[in-house]
Write a structure and sequence with these properties.
With about 150 residues, the protein is mainly alpha-helical. About 65% of the residues lie in helices and about 0% in strands.
Amino acid sequence: MRKFIFCLLLAGCAASPAPKASMDRHALNVADAALHSGDPGLALKVSQAVLNQDPDSRDAKLHEAAALYAMGRRNAAKSIYEGLYKSEPSAEAAAGLAKCVIHDDPRKAVLLLHVALAHKPRDPAYLTRLLSEKLETVDPGFGIEVITLEAES
């Protein structure tokens, strides 16, 4: 019995907690699933929980902005995407900002989409991830009737 308890104690000492980045990634996977299943409120809570632990997490900020946008809080999402894009112009920030400004400034939205698509224009997995939101959920407003995406390899 003593050997068993000793082994358990050693096992407990040897076990290290999961790395913080790994835990954040798992939490943000939950946020992704919540967004894709139509629960942006849960995605917002999860992303904000990650931000409470790591206020500089770029991925958590992207998830927070996506959740806010899905909840119809476009100005709040726009503010986050703008901050992210100004600090480091990534494809994800450009695409998110494009969704937010398409109503007010369609030309800016098109330029931002060019930036987003220019990162890996021939990578189908990247393009699918970047454009995975259903186009029906984007309301481009009056004057835009057709959106076409063409890719050649």
